Automatic annotation (TrEMBL):
GO (cellular component) term, any one: endoplasmic reticulum membrane
Binding-site list for heme: C449
Name of this protein: Cytochrome P450
Keyword Oxidoreductase: yes
Organism the protein comes from: Nezara viridula
GO molecular function, one term: oxidoreductase activity, acting on paired donors, with incorporation or reduction of molecular oxygen
Amino acid sequence: MWLAIALSLLVVWLLYKYYISVYDLWKKRGIPYYPSKFPFGCSHEILTHPRFGAYLHDEMYKKLAPNPMFGLFVMRVPMLHVRDPELIQLILTKEFSHFRERMFFKSSEKDLLSQNLFGLGSEKWRALRVKLTPTFTSGKMKAMFPLFVNCAEAFDSLIISKIGSNVDIKDLVGRLTTDIICCCAFGLDINTIQEPDHELRRIGAQAFQMRFIDRVKILILQAMPKIANKIEARLSPKETEDYIVKLVEDTMEYRKKNNIKRNDFLDLLIQLNNKGTIGDDMKDEIEEQKCQPFELTIGLMAAQCFVFFIAGFETSSSVQSFCLYELAVNQDIQTRVRKEIDEIIEKHGGLTYQAVHEMEYLDMVISETMRKYPTLPLLMRYCTKSITTRYGYKIEAGDSILIPVWSLHHDPEYYPDPEKFNPERFSEQNRESIKPYTYLPFGEGPRMCIGMRFGQLQTKVGLITLLRKSRVEPCAATKIPLVLGPSPMITAPKDPIVLKLVPQS
């Protein structure tokens, strides 16, 4: 018995030594590093997330300043935290061919919805990105704008019915966001403005809510990708996948049967699907090699629809809700925004595409909102080809990169008094002084957000529609200051943002 106990202890000790054996990697490579401990690496917060995830990275960002980059461990996975704007520019743009991958782990190919443009590997990503980009040009946005206006007009009646009431502002604007995305991208009239319990609303609201088991899954993918592939770990629930795939199949069948063409996102996917393969007519401009052709299956189509829906839903509804919170607690800024909206709409005789683009102060307010509350507090990249930086540090193939968007946006070196909501930072005269690659709400470079124009337009339409009908004010249920929740993936409030809608003065 004693021999068995001794052998068991030896095995445990050897496993422990193997687990921590990587923790001297950064010291060997001569790169500054944040200390790591068994079993979580840099911090237990990686798993437990007792607070907003960006706060831990911000503490490391400050503690290891002014180093341009430093190493850390998530469990036993090494990562490089890059805080220098010039290095960030090198990674996202200048030497993009070395950092084309976004994810350092791969989910199972049987997890269909994870095979989307955000997480796809470089070959499929490049081919799809080039083909899908025409959907999001300014010309396409202008052509779609009447659909935005139709959704906004339906939203008017809901706002009027809520005047005098305290409302969960994200739930309110999320109804308009959902209708716009479904109408403009997929040709679906789901009317969540009047029927808020639609299944797509539930899916959108839960997409970024992480349970403990979800965090464990991601840690498995990070720390043990080979094991994760064998057990076919998935990021999205099977029932969600089944629902989205069937929705795309049914919509495609309906359009084919009734010969319907809408020139929307789904139409472009259908055209690519009919062609059979993607990438066979392309030349990779970066690697100067042919892209490997691949078939655009129903599953891949559903994945693109899914990521466009949840990204558009979460980003736009979050930006609007944070923006309205700041306008509620900064009434002078709200007054100026509403004055600009009224004057420009009167000038154009209604809400037009040109009118929206002339609202310069509204654009400044939204830009400042995205600075203070970036939807993605961290950007991730994966090095595929080694490169030596101008600081002498070498980034090796296989290194995972973290870019601390939250910390950059709240660094007083780049944004004095960063906790103050100050739209003047983004005035025409001040915008030019912002240091490049310190403002990254949509990322930068070839893998920046493809739907940026769409997201900005629906955000502006939502804010314009609400502020034309009402003023937002704090109420007894409004949390001041705002407390952010423990989500590791996105910037979200801990509790619902509750504001009062009052009639225009």
